[in-house]
Amino acid sequence: MSATKTFGLAGILGWPVAHSRSPAMHNYWLAEHGLPGSYVLLPAPPERLPAALAGLPALGFRGCNVTTPHKQAVMPLIDHIDPMAARIGAVNMIVVEPDGSLRGFNTDGNGFVQGLRDAKPDWRADEGPIAIVGAGGAARSILAAMIEAGAREIRLVNRTHEKALRLAADLPGPVVPVRWEERAEALRGVATLVNATTQGSAGKPALDLALDALPRDAIVGDAIYVPPETPLLAAARARGNRTVNGLGMLLNQARPAFHAWFGVMPSITPGLKRAIEATF
Ligand code: NAP
Asked: Is 204 a catalytic residue?
C-alpha cells in the first residue's frame, strides 16, 4: 500500500471511548514500524454518528474502529458490509476506500479464535464440541468465527435462554442452545470452553459454572482481559486445563485493521503486551 508513505490517520469511534486501549496498540505499532501517522479517540454521541462517519473521508482518515454503542448503528450508514460483519450483525472496523466510500468489517470473533491458536498452535474448531457461555455481542462474534472455522458442534449456553435461541437462529450452523440449568452437564466431552459473559470481569462476581464434567485436556478461553485471570480461568488452570484470556482477542482483532489502514501486518510481541498491560 503506497499509503504507508503519507501521514495516516485512524481512530476509535464510540461513546464514551476514553477507556479504550486501541490508541495504545495502534500507536505502538506505528512507532515500531516507523510509520508516519496517528490513532486518535473519536468520541461521538449517537445523534452525531451520521456526521461523524461522513467526516472520516472528509478529514482524510484511512478508517476507524467502532465500539459501544455504535457497532450495530453504523451498519445502515456505511456503503459496503463484509460478509462476516453481515452475519454477526455488527461492525467493529471501517476502511475508507479510495473513492471515499466506507467498508465495514468485524474482526472480533476471528481475533478470539486467533488468540486460541496463539496459545495452542494445533487448536482446531472441529477437534471436539465447543461450549460458549453467553449470547451478547462478544458471544455473537465468537460464535460466527467458530462456525466459519469449521466447528462441528457448538453448545450455546446463556442465562436468558431466549437470547441463545435467537442467536442460534440468526447464525445457521451446528449450534445447540442449552438451558442455564444444564450448563455444568453441557461441559462433558468439550474440547473448547469459552466465557463470553461479563461474569468474572473486574468488579463482577465469578461465572457460576462447575467445571467437574470438563475434560482436563480442554482449552478454556475467556473474552475478559481485566483481570488477566478471571476466577473461571484460575479454576480451570488449577485443575490442569490450558487457559487463554481475552487479551489475545483484543490484540488479534486489531492486526487486520492496522494492516488495512497502514499497509503492514503487525506482530504481537512481548513489548506490545507489556505496553497494553501497563494501561490496566
Ligand atoms: P453483552 O452484550 O452485554 O452480553 C453480556 C452477556 O453476559 C449475556 O450473555 C448475559 O446473559 C451474560 N450475563 C450477564 N450477567 C450475567 C450473570 N449474572 N450470570 C450469567 N450470565 C450473565 O456483553 P458483551 O459485549 O458480549 O461482552 C461480554 C464480555 O466480553 C465483557 O466482559 C467484555 O469486556 C468482553 N469483551 C472482550 C473483548 C476483547 O477484545 N477481549 C471484546 C468484546 C467483549 P443474559 O443474556 O442472560 O443477560
From this structure: no
